[in-house]
Amino acid sequence: MRKAIHQLHFEGSFHGELPELGLPEIAFAGRSNVGKSSALNTLLQRKRAARTSSTPGRTQAINLFRLGDAGVFADLPGYGFAKVPQHVKDKWKQTIESYLSTREQLRLVVVLVDARRKPTALDGQLLWALVEQSIPSLVVATKVDKLKRSQRGKQLAQIRREFQLTKGQPIAFSSVTKEGRDAVWDAIEAAAAGPTLRRV
User: Whole-prediction pTM value?
Assistant: First the structure.
């Protein structure tokens, strides 16, 4: 799948019904300002495939990126930004829940968390919702380059304990140093090669 990044095509931003592309789909989710767009750009080896912003909450639609005939990346709206009006939060929640429950080609949800912050209830709720719907997840800890060496192990261990993650998670990731890029791609390709998920 990663070999198809040179065939990257932006399918568009969608607030309602999404097109059925018939390809394995990998979704990316996380709190606002967690570095999701930067992570996508790092994986796709583009500077501006996904729009980055210093303003949390900018991504309010689902953005689809098709990698030739290999698969699709879905950039989901960020959640948890306090200054966003409640009706917008409700809309985001509805959009994400609808996506997760109806997207037949979805193979994996990459949940990005900030390695510098304490695990949050919203991240835990998303991971639990994925478990309930039998959707595989991969937790990626972003911005590890901003941690001191003495802090790094402690922070990653805290995330692992809080979310009861399996060995190998969270994957330490940096959009600056590119650390973790290959590990995330390995997980994505393994999931994309698997069978279509059955909704429960």
Answer: 0.90
